[in-house]
Amino acid sequence: MADDKKQAMIEARGLCKYYGPFAAIQGVTFAVPRGQVCAFLGPNGAGKSTTMKLLTGYLSPTEGSAFIGGHDVYAERIQAATLIGYLPENGPLYPEMTPDSILKYLGEARGMSGSNLRTRLEYVADKCSLTTVWGKPISKLSRGFKQRVGMAAALLHDPEVLILDEPTSGLDPNQVHDVRDLIISLSKTKTILLSTHILQEVKAMCTRVIVINNGRLVFDGGVNDLEQTGVDMETRFRQLTLGKA
Predict the structure, then answer these.
(1) Confidence at residue 136, expressed as pLDDT on a 0 to 100 scale
(2) Do 94 and 134 form a contact (C-beta atoms < 8 A)?
(3) How is the chain split into domains, by residue range?
(4) Staple 46 to which of 42, 68, 120, 182, CB 3.0 to 4.6 Å?
C-alpha cells in the first residue's frame, strides 16, 4: 500500500514545447504522487496552460514525455484519458446545448449509460450547483455557470486525476468558496493539479506548490516552504517571477 500511495499519478519528464524559435516551456520535470493536491503557479504567459495541455494530451511536446497513472499520454492515450478529468481555461462548450444535454453527450461518449450515467449526472449537478440552470441553453449562462459546467464535465466519469486550469475563474465569492470546499473534499480520493492566480486558494487547498516562470520551473516545494521568515507568499512569488523583494 505504501508503494501505491507514492505512485506518481501525474508526471512530466523534460517537457518542451516550441513554436518556431519561441519556447513556451523548456525542460519541465516534476511528479505528483497519488493523493496530493498541487498548485501550479506562474504569471500570465509563463507556460502553465501549455504544460497542462501537454499533460492531458491536448498538445504534443516538441521534446519530453508525460505520464498519467503510469501511462504514456501519447503512446497510451486512451488508458491515460480514462484517468483524467480536465478543466481547461475557457473550455469550449456547445452554446445551443443545455448542461443536461451536453453532460449526457459527454458521458455517452465515454461509454457511460443507464443508472451509472444517471447517478453521475445527479452527482455533478448537485456538486457543481447546476440544478437551477440544468435545462437552460449554455449561451444564456453567465461565465460562472459556464465554468461550473466545465467542472461538471471534468468530474462526470469519476476520474482518479484532476487537472484544473483556473477552476474559480469567473466565479463570485460564494461560488469560489463552494469550489474550494469541493476540491478539498475531492482531494481525499483524487490527485489534483490546479493552476490559480489567487494565492489564498493555495493556502486553503494545497500541500505543494510548483512555480513556473518564462517556461521553466523556478520552485517546487511545500506550501509552507514558499514562505520564508519575514517574507509572505505574495512577496516570495514576486521574488521568483520578477526578481523583486
Answers:
(1) 97
(2) no
(3) 2-90+158-242
(4) 42
- Residue 7 phi, psi dihedral angles, 5° rounding: -60, 135
Q: What is the pTM of this model?
A: 0.90
Is domain 2-90+158-242 annotated with CATH 1.10.760.10? Answer: no
Q: Hey, what's the cell of 130?
A: 447546476
Question: What angle do helix axes 99-109 and 143-155 make, rounded to 10 degrees?
Answer: 30
Residue ranges of the chain whose pLDDT lies below 70: 1-5, 229-230, 243-245
Selection from 131, 136, 202 nearest residue 167 by Cα: 202
Please name the residues in contact with 223: beta carbons below 8 A apart, sequence gap of 6 or more: 39, 202, 203, 206, 207, 208, 209
Q: Based on the number of CB atoms within 10 Å of its own CB, is 187 exposed (0-12), middle (13-18) or buried (19 or more)?
A: middle
Give residue 2's pLDDT. Answer: 42
User: Is there a contact between 10 and 29 (Cβ–Cβ < 8 Å)?
Assistant: no
pLDDT of residue 245: 46
Give the span between the Cα atoms of 162 and 127, in whole angstroms: 15
